[in-house]
Write a structure and sequence with these properties.
Asp/Glu_race; Rossmann fold; about 260 residues; 11 helices; alpha/beta; Asp/Glu_racemase_AS_1; 4-stranded parallel beta sheet; isomerase; EC 5.1.1.3
Length: about 260
């Protein structure tokens, strides 16, 4: 059986990219709800309906585990999804905990970049409250990055001016770690780096999610000897056109290149 990955769009490929490193011989389903992206600017009730419709479809394909590779969808629905399905359902959340532990000793702040809906959710506020005992975590919504990614617009000459405008009111020297709290954001790591001091680290929750997926499948004795095959769906329709499949491969290559540049906490 395959492992399912779900996101509102192509952001979840950044999480799938990590899973392929830890579980290269598994076969995968990647479902992007591109008809309804972006989730971060819609109402909670609307997004919940999209999520459950998508996961029902994925479950009917036959999966042994599902990764909700979307911070917004995780914050809204992961608990209820776990109650409904009998296979493991993993979510992703902003990597605030390692960022706070790292920055406390350096007397620096943490900046969480995410969507509006993720930052508004109680799940995020509870996470920060449980960890941030010295009031060093700040956040900023960057919905434009989701739109750029979905339009395959990664050119720095387009992205950097947007980031410079959104970050303009902040003192960028005060941050020690930038947390990418949306799975679309790792595509723009190089553009983000250009605006912050060289020593600032940029992290996401993708690695932790991939490690947890591997641990769970091993504990359940469900590791398969597959081929690393990936079947892609867009809002319930199988992706078969060569242009779209080529674009997905292009994203995985881009992430390989970024991984070579990324510092690790």
């Amino acid at each position: 059986m395959r492992i399912g990955f779900f996101d509102s769009g192509i952001g979840g490929i950044t999480v799938l990219h990590q899973a392929l490193k830890y579980l290269p011989n598994e076969d995968y389903i990647f479902y992007a709800d591109t008809f309804h992206v972006p989730y971060g600017e819609k109402s909670k009730e609307e997004v919940r309906e999209y999520i459950f419709n998508a996961v029902d479809f994925i479950a009917n394909q036959g999966v042994k585990a599902l990764v909700i590779a979307c911070n917004t969808a995780t914050s809204i629905a992961v608990k209820d999804l776990r109650k409904k399905y009998d296979f493991p359902v993993l979510g992703i959340e902003p990597a605030v905990k390692p960022a706070v532990h790292y920055c406390e000793g350096k007397q620096k702040k943490v900046l969480v970049l995410a969507t509006n809906l993720t930052l508004k959710e109680e799940k995020f506020h509870n996470l920060v409250k449980s960890i941030d005992h010295h009031d060093i975590v700040e956040s900023l919504p960057l919905p434009g990055l989701v739109e750029f990614a979905e339009n395959f617009e990664f050119r720095e000459e387009i992205v950097v001016p947007y980031l410079r405008e959104k970050l303009g009111s902040l003192d960028l020297e005060q941050y020690g770690t930038i947390v990418l709290g949306c799975t679309h954001f790792p595509y723009f790591e190089n553009s983000i780096k250009k605006l912050f001091p060289e020593e600032v680290d940029i992290i996401s929750g993708s690695i932790g999610t991939a490690k947890n997926l591997s641990r769970i499948l091993k504990a359940r004795n469900q590791i398969n000897d597959g081929t690393g095959d990936i079947v892609y769906f867009k809002s319930g329709y199988k992706v078969e056109d060569k242009n779209s499949l080529s674009n997905y491969k292009r994203l995985l290559v881009m992430l390989d290149e970024l991984q070579l540049l990324s510092p690790k906490l």
